[in-house]
Design goal:
heterodimer; A: 283 residues; mainly alpha; 73% helix; B: 74% helix; 0% strand; disordered N terminus
Chain lengths: 283, 310
């Protein structure tokens, strides 16, 4: 009896420690985002005096409104959606086609080809930054969504490839054989039989590709320098530099930038946790 | 890479005359799109980086770049900042990966217990990992802010500090805060992978040990730890490679400063590109890549074996 009470207490204490470590900083940001700003001079809305306030007496959504009314935050959000969605589609398409070849066919050069592609996954982004910048300039891809989507694919396509090879390997081959007997071409079999059966795998791959792209800072910082193409992580850096100098506004920007990935995570929690434990999701 | 296992398999499963059958282009067509994509955005740029590393290229006058042979590598050899950055890379790797393990292992052990609400705690653990790193950087910059940072407030309230400190402008403190942010954002991956490792340990081992009267500590020391060691080594290697490449957190939080205090090799190369010295920057990046690819080759071999083995 005593031992079980000790155990209960231990569990509670452990859970409390872990929760405050993992969620504390996020919670603090959420509180800051609804704390009203103290503006000493109404003619200078960018100046704000701020003190640490744990329980805002008058919570407000003004900071969120400020983001969309006084900054082009809606545009940045849209840019992020375009780039993340575009990368997801490219990575899913080329990744799953390639994966099907590796999973189902024994062809000459299979092993070296796969090793080459995995090596691509391990080439550090630092090496690619400058050459990509120069190449993009040459081909006019700088400050375009196409350029950024191509760059982001370097990380996401090999990951989807790897994930889908593993996924296809778990599918029974009989249905494909049956489709072949019924006279379907191999391309028809792939698109009408295999891919529809692979939706769970494709969802997982797409999810990781979307989130990785949404979160990536470095490529976005280098390849989108115009207002029309900047994505959210680039704006987060400006906020961290103290650009609007209003913490409440920065905090609400941080909350909105996190919102889509947080929602996706909540919806697909189990899938994502098992995907993470399979390892190798580039951060 | 050894290609032997697959070649053998083909010989065993197909009759000899079938092997000389017509060439089948279909798998190559399927591989072509991703191959061309990677050729265009990974391999070509990587080779281009090697070329740039042999020139004195500058972003502003790129067309007039001169081939200078190994000039950049000689410059590296005489560049104290390069070697300081190498040492700081090592410091960054050891501190970040070490603390990630020190935090992730207890979390994984805790999540491996049976209790109500475990699913909720596990989900909460992953949250720092799915937050965009730039957001995590922003949150930590503000938590440690010198005039309204919550950490200053708490430390002053409990009497550890007398007055507010501007942590990010002090050399050692800025390193600690940046590493702290990185650990916070990175440890969930390690916790989840170690948890998967823990769940794969057969329960019989623990039952047998209990029958033999082993204490909880002995069970941890002689069953859990040895069984978990491969997972620990794997994830630590992976994180060390990634952390050596990492730029985001350091660049967003500190720009590598104060001074050169937070320059790792990757950050050094990146800051050189910000100064448009792309020839020298590429040389630094190439040296870093060569060092890391040695470690990566090990990992790639492991991955491609586990994928190709049926």
């Amino acid at each position: 009896m005593n031992a079980s009470i000790t155990r209960q207490f231990g569990i509670l204490l452990g859970a409390a420690l872990i929760l405050s470590y993992s969620l504390g900083p996020v919670l603090w940001t959420a509180i800051a985002s609804i704390t009203p700003e103290v503006r000493p001079d109404p003619s200078k809305p960018w100046m704000s005096i701020r003190h640490v306030e744990y329980f805002p007496a008058e919570p407000t959504l003004d900071n969120y409104a400020h983001l969309f009314e006084n900054l082009p935050f809606g545009n940045y959000f849209r840019n992020s959606v375009i780039v993340a969605t575009g990368t997801m589609i490219v990575a899913l398409l080329v990744g799953s086609l390639g994966a099907y070849a590796f999973a189902r066919f024994r062809f000459k050069g299979r092993a070296p080809l796969l090793a080459t592609m995995l090596m691509a996954y391990m080439i550090p982004s630092v090496v690619l930054l400058v050459p990509l910048l120069v190449i993009f300039r040459t081909y006019g891809l700088n400050n375009t969504f196409y350029g950024l989507i191509l760059a982001e694919s370097t990380n996401t396509a090999p990951f989807v490839l790897l994930l889908m090879i593993n996924y296809f390997a778990t599918l029974p081959k009989e249905l494909e054989d049956a489709a072949a007997v019924d006279g379907a071409s191999r391309l028809q079999t792939l698109f009408l039989v295999v891919l529809p059966m692979s939706i769970p795998g494709l969802v997982a791959g797409g999810l990781f590709a979307f989130i990785a792209t949404w979160n990536n800072f470095l490529f976005a910082f280098l390849f989108t320098t115009t207002e029309a193409t900047k994505t959210l992580p680039v704006i987060m850096r400006l906020f961290a530099l103290g650009e609007p100098a209003v913490w409440g506004v920065s905090a609400s920007g941080a909350m909105i930038t996190t919102l889509p990935v947080a929602l996706l995570f909540l919806l697909f929690q189990r899938m994502m946790i098992s995907g993470l434990s399979a390892g190798a999701v580039k951060n | 890479m050894t290609a032997t296992p697959i070649a053998n398999e083909t010989v065993e499963t197909t009759a000899p005359f079938k092997r000389r059958e017509r060439f089948d282009a279909f798998p190559y067509l399927l591989v072509a799109p991703i191959l061309f994509l990677l050729l265009a955005v990974t391999f070509y740029p990587a080779l281009y980086a090697v070329y740039l590393a042999l020139t004195d290229a500058h972003m502003i006058r790129l067309a007039r770049a001169q081939f200078i042979g190994l000039g950049n590598f000689i410059r590296i050899w005489n560049d104290p900042l390069f070697f300081d950055s190498l040492w700081r890379t090592l410091r960054w790797d050891v501190v970040v990966v070490g603390f990630e393990l020190a935090i992730a292992l207890p979390i994984a052990l805790f999540l491996n217990l049976n209790f109500r609400g475990r699913g909720f705690v596990r989900a909460a653990v992953v949250v720092p990992y799915i937050i965009p790193p730039a957001v995590a950087a922003l949150i930590w910059v503000y938590m440690f802010d010198g005039s309204f940072g919550v950490v200053n407030d708490i430390l002053v309230r409990i009497g550890v500090l007398e007055k507010y400190h501007s942590f990010l402008s002090e050399p050692l403190a800025s390193f600690a805060v940046t590493a702290g942010a990185m650990v916070w954002a990175g440890q969930p991956l390690m916790a989840i992978i170690l948890l998967a490792g823990l769940q794969a340990i057969p329960a019989e081992l623990y039952e047998a040990a209990k029958v033999d009267g082993a204490t909880a500590w002995q069970r941890f020391r002689y069953i859990t730890l040895p069984q978990l060691l491969p997972s620990i080594l794997f994830i630590c290697l992976l994180r060390t490679i990634w952390m050596s490449n990492h730029i985001d957190m350091i660049f967003v939080m500190t720009r590598g400063g104060p001074g050169f205090n937070n320059y790792t090799e990757a950050v050094y190369s990146f800051m050189l590109t910000q100064r448009f010295e792309i020839g020298y920057s590429s040389a630094v990046a190439v040296v870093l890549a060569v060092i890391l690819m040695t470690a990566s080759a090990f990992y790639v071999r492991h991955l491609s074996r586990s994928v190709l083995a049926p």
